[in-house]
Amino acid sequence: MKTQQQTPTARTLAILSSVPVIMVLGNSMLIPVLPAISRTLQVSPFQVSLLITLFSIPAAITIPLAGILSDRIGRKKVIAVGLLLYGAGGLLAGLASIWGDGSYIAILLSRILQGIGAAGTAPIAMVLTSDLYQQEKRSEALGIIEAANAMGKVLSPILGSILGLISWYAMFFLFPILTLPIILLLWYQIEESIHTQGLPLHQYKKNIKKIFRVHGRWLFISFASGSIVLFSLFGVLFYISDYLEKTFHLVGVGKGIYLSIPLLSLSAVSYWTGKQIGHSAFLTKRFIIGGLGVIALSLLLLPWFTKLYLLLSITALMGLGSGLVLPCLNTMITSAIGLQERGIITSLYGSVRFLGVALGPPIYGALISSPKLLFIGNATILLIAIFFSYHLIENPQHLRGKNGHSRLLLRKKRLYSP
């Protein structure tokens, strides 16, 4: 069922872009103050690392559920509730930090609540963006969403370092301060131009199975590629962070600025990529394969260079490759799936992306004693992804109809709305 289509404004995209920025702050902003939390609460490094892990894992698990709900009850409701839980978790963590001498268990439970809330934020904002924008404008808008996500990653450790000068728990109170205005703007300033009427559950399940039967091969490699790209990027950021501290004695805000270079590159190239594939869908597959190749090359070069400017140049190259791949995957996945199932499919993609970010640093940390072998192994995985992407990803013009439909599924009794 659909209502009259509106033309989204720049304000609409600005509001939607703020959602992934807020989500990214949930983890990255805490990283600079983790040592202070460990000292103050007298907990071990492993225990303090759970403040990150028990945010990420609940989010990754809950994202598919948020996707299903967004298909059934609407995108805005899910995003608004997600932001509300996210802000409430931050407020509770802040109160638990100042109550008495601080309660580690209460902060940990608050972080779990935040992670559950985060599941309904950025992945569903991507779905809503895809609903609101059509054809080439969709590619450009999703490129901006990806750029905003990267900019959030750039700003969060710097912002965390600055707030840490006030107190180790100051950032917890920032979450409700930021989320409440965004909820109000989302609710009153954005109208869902296309409204879904939830299919009967048996039909919904049937359509999901049909999607994976028809599109399963290229969806699988697309999901895997997105996860591998983010695994590689954040694994390398972990490696570079440790290397900068041990070799060049860079810490705090200064190190954060250096680490922001690949993320700035990712942000700028994501914006550019979104504009390019909006004008020429034929470039999509080329950008995916080329971007994966650039990341693989960067990984093969990285362990052989020790000078700071060369290391930072190679990480910027990784950001460039990631900026070529991610907006293309976002556009392909959201455009090829019909409106009534777009939430769950896009959310599954968001979940594997989240796992890639979460798994990169610990796996790199566990294997960093053999860096050359680690980087060669990671590059080999990317080369395998290139091979399967070349053979399994169809020409995007064959995946998208005029209004973003899957042409293959449209031939099956037109199950999907525009």
Beginning-to-end CA distance, first to last residue: 10 Å
Q: Could you please say which CATH topology applies here?
A: Growth Hormone, Chain: A
- Work out the helix count: 16
Average pLDDT, all residues: 85
Structure description:
The protein is mainly α and 418 residues long. The chain has a single domain, classed as MFS general substrate transporter like domains (Growth Hormone, Chain: A), CATH 1.20.1250.20. The protein is 80% helix and 0% strand. The protein is built from 16 helices and no strands. α2 (34-41) crosses α3 (45-73). The radius of gyration is 21 Å and the shape is globular. The model is unreliable at 1-5 and 397-418 (pLDDT under 50).
Short description:
This protein is mostly helical and 418 residues long. The protein is built from 16 helices and no strands.
List keywords for this structure.
0% strand, Growth Hormone, Chain: A
Annotate the secondary structure layout:
Layout: H1 10-28, H2 34-41, H3 45-73, H4 75-98, H5 104-118, H6 122-132, H7 135-164, H8 170-189, H9 201-248, H10 252-279, H11 283-301, H12 308-336, H13 342-367, H14 371-392, H15 396-399, H16 407-410
Protein name: MFS transporter
Domain Major facilitator superfamily (MFS) profile: 12-397
Keywords: Cell membrane, Membrane, Transmembrane, Transmembrane helix, Transport
